[in-house]
Structure formats: C-alpha cells, structure tokens
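I hope you will forgive my troubling you with a question about protein structure. Here, with my thanks, is the record as I have it:
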Amino acid sequence: MSEITNLPEEASEKLEEQIKIEEGHDDEAHEMTLLEHLEELRNRLVKVIIGIFLGTLACVPLSRQLFNYIMLPLFHSLPEGSKMIYTSPHEAFFVYLKTALISGIFLTLPFSFYQIWLFVKPGLYPEERKYIIPIAISSALLFISGALFGYFVIFPYAYTFFMSFSNIHISPMISMKEGLSFAIRILIAFGLVFELPLIIFFLARLGLVTSKTLKKYRKYAILIAFIVSAILTPPDAVTQILMAVPLIILYEVGIWIAFLFGKERKKKNAKKDVELKEGENNDNPSEDKETDQGDNN
C-alpha cells in the first residue's frame, strides 16, 4: 500500500476502489460459520468417496491386468528365472483389490479435485471462481503427469539399481504386497511434487509470495529440492537427480506464474491505469473548464 500513499489523495482513493473492483471484493458476501464449513466439507468428502467407490468398482474386473502393467518395469528388471511371490493365502486377493482402489482414485482425480476446489470456492474472489474447472483439470493433469514421469523415467532406473545386488548366491523374491506399496509410494510422491506450480499460483494470488521473493530464495529451494528427492526416492544418486531436476524446473515455472498472476502485478497495472487517467485529465484542463462553463450557462 506504500505505492498507493505516494499518489495524490484523490488518485489514491480511485486506485483503492479499482483494486477492490478488479479483485471482486465484496464486504456484503455471506460468511460461512464453522458448522457450515464442516457441513460443506462433509458433503464434498462424501461425493469424493462415492466417486472413488464407483471408479474402484469399474477397475475391479481389470485389477490383474492393471497390477501386471504397474509391475511391468520391475518384471523387466528381475533376474532371469525370478518371479514375484505372495506370502499368505489372502495376499494376492487384497493386492488386486488395492490395485483396483488405487486405479479408481487415479481414474476419478478430475472429479475429486473439482470437489476440493468447490470447497475452497467460497474463499475466492468472484473473478477467481470462474477458474475452478480449469484449475481442477490442471490439478489432475499435473498429478497424473508426475505419476507418469515416475513410472516411465524413475522406475526403470530404480528397479535396475535394486536388482543389481543379486548374484548367483542371492536372488530377489519380492512379494506382491511390497512391490505394489513401493510403486504406489513413488507414483504418489511424483504426483504431489508436480502440483508445485499450482500451489505457487494460489500463494501468489493470496499475496503470500511474489516472484521477487521466489527468486531471492532460489538457492534454498534448490537445496530443499535435493533434500526432498533424497527422502522420497530410492537411495541412489541417479533417481534423486531425476526427481530434483524436475522439481527445480517446476519452481522456475512457479516464479513466472507468480509474476504473471500475483497480486503485486495487478496492483501495478491498476496504478498505471489511474496514472494514465490522471494524466489525461491534466492534459485537457481547458475542456473541463469549457464543460463547467457550459453547465453553468
């Protein structure tokens, strides 16, 4: 607001009014109570759970094929003659059921993200609410893109690294449960990491971060990227780098997003518009006088 106070009083008032109009500020908007928020959250969660349940039912008949496809990079890395095993009578059944559940979650991601953003919608400005559907679709696409990156890029390197410890005396005997858990953990980790640009977008819209702030702390972000990749990926340098590099690239994309969509840019544009209007009024004082004289006559 320091930029606003430097302007003349009349221009400052106009700038504040214009910013409020552009941001869709409405003091008379209905504020939901805590109980109303909880009720809204419950309704959204019920819809998400129903959607996931229906998606899971649709994936149950294909659960074996889906499991084999998820494990395909591991099958290619196993030594010759090695196979996956299950160590209890019911393990295979529950693994296929879990595969159907995870597949159902991925299948209904656009609907789930849409419900999440509908819950957030009351806290958004009117002009931001029109982006709910694009944001929901973007959230799902970013998450799926991260999971696909983990599947096609990370899995081959990770499984090759772990299978390299086998020899004539040691042979891997990986259970279905552990194999699926490892794969899902990697897929979800990369899916969440790829949501970074969207997170930065909302932080910038709320005025919590700016492009200048993100640039200032770039070196710390790079360090954090390698720390996060070391935690989420297998303990070898190749897979850690393969996760850290996309994370750094996504951070750089987030800087541009903060620059283009942040509140700071909107205020600057509003200030320029007011200054242009003030300049036009100052350039044509004679016209204003003539108008006033005409009104008096």
In short: Residues 32-194 form one domain.
